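During the reporting period the student researcher (J.K.) took over the structure-prediction task from the postdoctoral fellow and processed the backlog of single-chain submissions. One of the processed entries is reproduced below for the supervisory committee.
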Amino acid sequence: MEKLGPVARDAVPVLVDQLKRLESVAPNSVLVTLGKIGPDAAKAVPDLIELVNRNDKFHAKDAVDALGLIGSSAADATPVIAKRLGEKSKYDRIAAARALGRIGPLAKASVPELKTLLGDEQHDVRAWAAFAIARITSDVKPQVATLVDLLESHFNESRQFGGSVSHEICETLELLGPAARDASKVLLTQLTNEKERPNVRGSAARALLAVAPDDESLIQPIVAFIERLGSGFERSMVVVRTVNSLAHVGPKAKSAIATLRKLLDDDDDRIAAAAEALERIEGK
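J.K. obtained the following structure tokens:
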């Protein structure tokens, strides 16, 4: 999710006031915006906790997501969020685990419940529980091993199920960053597996760039993946997101420059992404 950050801090009181009269729609733009503001929306935490406590089907999950994106400043929400680890909907359990992981070490009271979710019947729930435990306890290695095992168990699933679980697992590894470097090999296998859907391979590419940002040998297979993608909305979005990740790597992605220059002749979204990436990689 794109962060709005400090520049939007002044909007927080207005957004908090709007929490009192939210429309019954999901996702709700007010809650999404507070999440995008991130830590600078800390003043909204009490109101978001109250919203989660109401257990409103339209807003509780979005409020949990916003609290997670606010991060450690939302530590007071830990008990309320942890209660939702036992919700019937897997999406509520995922949102709770993800938020606790983003809060980090200050959410340590939730670790026993998170460990229970490592045996959840839904593998994407297990993945987010492992992510949360890694972020909260800094005991990363065994959790990364769990994520690697889960990802390997879902190789080629996208031909039947769209690769949603694989995508979620790759996202957890991406968020863990260099601490999850042990997952590089399995992510590279996922990236280069042409039986997988583009969205899954793109998720693996972004995770690779996050866990091993200094490994220049990974740029070439990612470039090859980009070059082989055709047209269509899904493929275009995969390219844009992958190129955005290359931009964050900076000069170490210099072997991608030729491919990025070709994208300047593509559609508008790809042009914008490629132009920004080139600027960062070339240091202009």
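The committee noted the following: The mean pLDDT is 90.
J.K. will present the remaining backlog at the next meeting.
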